[in-house]
Design a protein that fits this description.
The chain has about 80 residues and is mostly helical. The chain has one domain. The protein is built from four helices and two strands, in the order ααββαα. The protein is globular.
């Protein structure tokens, strides 16, 4: 059986990604999040929102995550806590 998720309106889509409607509009205008136009109505496909979220996930690599004063992801909590 094929399961088709409903298309979301802007208020539903921004709640789905837990961001503001203005953020969603900016990302859509920048063509980073696809949308579907039906005349003047704009809808978002949940699969596209999932793909956008997946594209934003990063893999933490300690050597590449050097922060303030040489603190890395592994010694950051100790350095901040003063330990």
């Amino acid at each position: 059986m094929i399961v088709v998720e409903p298309l979301l309106k802007k208020p539903e889509a921004d709640k789905w990604v837990n961001m503001s409607e203005s953020w969603l509009e900016k990302e859509t205008a920048a063509e980073r999040i696809p949308c579907i136009h039906f005349g003047s109505a704009v809808r978002y496909d949940v699969a596209d929102l999932r793909a956008y979220i997946e594209s934003k996930k990063i893999t933490l690599r300690v050597r590449r995550c050097v922060g303030v004063a040489g603190r890395t992801a592994t010694n950051w909590p100790r350095a901040v806590a003063g330990g």
